[in-house]
Write a structure and sequence with these properties.
Strand content: 15-25%
CATH topology of the largest domain: Heat Shock Protein 90
Low-confidence stretches: 1-5, 254-267, 389-396
Bound molecules: adenosine-5'-triphosphate, magnesium ion
CATH class of the largest domain: Alpha Beta
Number of strands: 12
Order of helices and strands: HHEHEEHEEHEEEHEHEHEHEH
Distance between the termini: 44 Å
Strand order of the largest sheet: 2-4-5-7-6
CATH architecture of the largest domain: 2-Layer Sandwich
Structural class: alpha/beta
Length: 396
């Protein structure tokens, strides 16, 4: 780039874009860290609630337990949003025809939005296929439509459109790479976004809504999901003139590719086999032991990898499965998994973590585990992963 006067505004714009990207990046890292700790706190709470609910309770306790469970689940949902923003959430992708989703969202809007808002949907029949997680793209569209609704308290027009587009090479590093895209667009005729806050709207917890009305996680979740799908979000707005959000998602080159979901066997009880549970969090060990023992397993525990290797080496043939945390002091998860694999190539290994990114680390390390459990998980999930060849880790 030459440094002439004419280039200056472009350079300033680029610098501002980079600063913005860096700020969002560090917020993402922070969000990921917080989410990991909170998942570790919620995991034993959720499992303990399930255990208590499986016992005979009086009606009052039942009610309290349901309340506790709902609260813990809500907490887990918020953490999931934070992780999506921090790009730590892996999407369950499959080839997707966006038209189906758009129709669903349009129906939802017609049924639930105030009648003062008129919906103008327009999406062609021949939209290209994208590779995407349907639930996440649904959430993107819904979050954008909810914002549009909130920007038009006295009514207005909500436009929901989609189109195919082939993009040329852009002129700045933040432009999308050239190629085929499906562009989803949500536009409203509401109050628009004032320039003073325009570059903050994607930050987590940034909201202009009154306390209790908005969490400020809507757009940060949108951005996290879209970036996770190698896509881009563009905003056009003028105060008083409404806002237009465009989501660009890369179209699929080979729409015939299909993915078969793993099948789950609902009968998953142990048969007095040993399971070794390794975690440096005491309450996770305690609750996992109770859950496993209540479901027909015998349980050994260890607080770190070194201790667990000793325990494992004492009875390698008797231990059916090892359930281990991935982030531990002394010997981390991957080192421990490597050690166990050296002692036994066929023991079932279930890795658990509060951070989905750990799964990528594990995959990259080439270590073979049989399943990956995202904390917090339900007792039933733990049982299923112990039982058969299922889980969230795709076969290598
Ligand atoms: N279509 C829109 N028109 C005007 N302002 C918008 C629009 N979309 C977003 N904003 C602004 O961006 C802010 C952040 O949006 P975001 O969706 O992240 O959070 P929120 O809507 O305030 O809360 P939540 O999504 O959790 O309900 C909003 O508070 C609002 O000020
Ligand atoms: Mg919102």
């Amino acid at each position: 780039m030459s440094g002439t006067k004419e280039d200056l505004p472009a350079q300033q714009q680029l610098a501002a874009q980079l600063a913005h990207a860096q700020r969002l990046e560090s917020l993402g890292t922070l969000a990921g860290g917080v989410a990991h700790d909170l998942n570790n706190i919620l995991a034993p709470i959720l499992m303990a609630i399930e255990l208590l609910r499986s016992r005979p309770n009086n009606a009052d306790d039942e009610h309290l337990l349901a309340m506790l469970r709902d609260g813990a689940r809500r907490g887990a949902d918020i953490i999931k949003q934070l992780l999506i923003f921090g790009r730590g959430m892996t999407a369950q992708r499959s080839p997707l025809q966006p038209r189906t989703l758009l129709k669903e969202v349009a129906r939802l809007i017609r049924e639930t939005f105030p009648k003062t808002i008129t919906l103008a949907p327009r999406f062609p029949h021949d939209l290209w296929t994208i590779e995407a997680d349907p639930a996440q793209i649904h959430q993107v569209l819904l979050n954008l439509c909810l914002n549009a609704r909130d920007a038009m308290p006295h009514g207005g027009r909500l436009t929901l459109t989609a189109e195919n587009a082939v993009l040329d090479a852009g002129t700045t590093p933040t432009d999308p790479p050239p190629g085929p895209y499906v562009i989803l667009e949500v536009a409203d005729t509401g109050h628009g976004i004032p320039p003073a806050i325009a570059d903050r709207i994607f930050e987590p917890f940034f909201t202009t809504k009154p306390p209790g009305r908005g969490t400020g996680l809507g757009l940060s979740t949108v951005l996290g999901i879209v970036q996770n799908h190698a896509g881009f979000v563009r905003v056009h707005t003028e105060p008083g003139q409404g806002a237009r959000f465009r989501v660009l998602l890369p179209a699929l080159a080979d729409p015939d590719a299909s993915i078969t979901p793993a099948s789950l066997d609902p009968l998953a009880r142990g048969n007095d086999q040993f399971v070794l549970v390794v975690d440096d969090e005491d309450c996770i060990l305690t609750v996992a032991r109770r859950v496993l023992e209540a479901n027909g397993y015998r349980v050994l525990t260890a607080a770190n990898g070194a201790e667990a290797i000793v325990t494992f080496s004492q009875r390698p043939a008797e231990i059916r499965a090892v359930v281990t945390d991935m982030m531990m002091p002394l010997m981390d998860g991957p080192a421990f998994v490597r050690g166990v694999r050296q002692l036994s190539s066929d023991v079932r290994i279930v890795a658990m973590s509060g951070l989905p990114a750990e799964q990528d680390t594990l995959n990259r390390s080439g270590l073979r585990v049989d399943a990956f459990l995202m904390k917090p998980f339900a007792a039933q999930q733990l049982m299923l992963t112990l039982q058969g060849p299922c889980g969230t880790v795709p076969p290598p």
